[in-house]
């Protein structure tokens, strides 16, 4: 698989997780991939770990771990990224490229790689065809280059016991109200009862008779059930009941259609009514869409300010690349090809214009990609923008790595430029 984001040749690990809806791991429990060895990286051994429920169950996390018994040097420096990919191999959601030194038994990745709601509900048909999630991890050498592109494939299948059956009810038309009929669902493997399905006719509020079902589990080992019920007419055709109790397909696709429409406005520069200007470029945009994401833009365009009259916002302190990335997020809620450097600039832009969701995204990326080389810069960034959460995390990281950071040139530079911040961080050792 060619690497468009990085011209270097890479090792690509593609991992299919079948029946992913049935994963029951809690927040600290991962699904671990089959191990794989990268010969071109000193024959080091690796696994990918997928955390189905991270950050109080709202996110999916993904990490790359070096195996404890791996060959190679004590620390191996690599670049890596993650993606969830479609059937055709195209990336649907992906991380930026991380650059870390992996010691044996250690791993790095993203706690908040993807939202569970998006993967399992709103975009389920895109991300989970046939209930299979496909994850991709790519690895590059930090120094030098892998001789050729290499692909490795693995599969993990969550075991599911499936049963299909037709339940014929004799004399159904004369069943009395509240009469219960039961059907035993048994295991294919050993014919033991797994659950019972009860049907009874109840009287509704308007005296209509309503068919109700109740499922009772008899095997305590079963943690999760999916049941699809339908009625079959005399000709064997399925009769869909209670359609009005479910979300209409048109409603499900509405949010996607709206996103596509907004993206087309961005791509085609259609009916733009404001321009964002740097010293070198001009970016057409829409006041309404900018205002929806940013309280700062909203104030500019709704109050008696110069931007309201000129339909132009002069931005001298942000690069063209940063503004382009900021607009891409506003119009598509996507961030592409993040690196530590452009993530820090994008974070600053999000803070300046109060684009809270983008700031949160960039902050998460920065936390996931803390390293010995950028910790001091992240400390300055968090302090300058008053981000107490990010600041606390980077301070803990600095204290955990002690002399590895405090003996570095970056720390010496920090001591000269912001001695108060350096002292504040070191004082935490005594609290």
TrEMBL record:
It holds the Pfam family MATH_2. Residues 272-336 form the BTB domain. InterPro entries: BTB/POZ_dom, MATH/TRAF_dom, SKP1/BTB/POZ_sf, TRAF-like. Residues 10-139 form the MATH domain. GO terms for biological process: protein catabolic process. PROSITE patterns: BTB, MATH. It comes from the Eukaryota. This is Speckle-type POZ protein. It comes from Araneus ventricosus. The gene is spop_63.
């Amino acid at each position: 698989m060619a690497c468009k984001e990085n011209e270097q040749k890479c090792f690509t690990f593609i991992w299919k997780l079948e029946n992913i809806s049935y994963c029951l791991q809690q927040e600290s429990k991962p699904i671990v991939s089959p191990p794989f060895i990268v010969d071109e990286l000193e024959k080091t051994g690796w696994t990918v770990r997928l955390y189905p429920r991270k950050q109080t169950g709202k996110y999916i996390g993904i990490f790359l771990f070096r195996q404890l018994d791996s060959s190679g040097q004590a620390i191996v420096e690599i670049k890596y990224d993650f993606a969830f990919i479609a059937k055709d191999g195209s990336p649907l959601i992906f991380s930026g490229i991380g650059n870390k030194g992996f010691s044996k038994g250690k791993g790095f990745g993203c706690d908040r790689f993807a939202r569970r709601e998006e993967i399992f509900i709103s975009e389920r048909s895109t991300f989970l065809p046939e209930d299979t999630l496909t994850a991709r991890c790519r690895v590059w050498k930090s120094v030098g280059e892998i001789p050729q592109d290499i692909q490795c494939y693995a599969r993990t299948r969550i075991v599911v016991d499936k049963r299909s059956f037709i339940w014929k009810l004799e004399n159904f038309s004369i069943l009395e109200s509240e009469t219960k009929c039961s059907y035993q669902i048994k295991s294919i493997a050993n014919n033991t009862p797994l659950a019972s399905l009860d049907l009874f006719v109840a009287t509704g509020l308007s005296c209509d008779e309503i068919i109700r079902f109740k499922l009772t589990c008899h095997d305590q080992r079963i943690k999760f059930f999916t049941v699809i019920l339908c009625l079959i007419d005399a000709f064997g055709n399925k009769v869909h009941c209670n359609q009005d109790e479910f979300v209409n397909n048109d409603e499900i696709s509405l949010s996607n259609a709206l996103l596509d429409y907004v993206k087309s406005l961005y791509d085609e520069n259609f009916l733009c009514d404001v321009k964002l200007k740097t010293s070198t470029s001009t970016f057409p945009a829409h006041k309404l869409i900018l205002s929806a994401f940013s309280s700062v833009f909203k104030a500019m365009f709704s109050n008696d300010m110069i931007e309201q009259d000129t339909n132009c916002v002069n931005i001298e302190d942000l690069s063209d690349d940063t503004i382009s990335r900021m607009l891409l997020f506003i119009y598509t809620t996507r961030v592409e090809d993040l690196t530590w450097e452009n993530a820090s600039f994008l974070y600053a832009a999000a803070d300046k214009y109060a684009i809270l969701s983008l700031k949160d995204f960039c902050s998460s990326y920065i936390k996931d990609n803390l390293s010995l080389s950028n910790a001091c810069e992240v400390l300055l960034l968090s302090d300058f923008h008053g981000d107490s959460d990010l600041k606390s995390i980077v301070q803990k990281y600095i204290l955990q790595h002690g002399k590895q950071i405090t003996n570095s040139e970056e720390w010496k530079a920090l001591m000269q430029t912001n001695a108060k911040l350096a002292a504040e961080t070191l004082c935490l050792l005594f609290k």
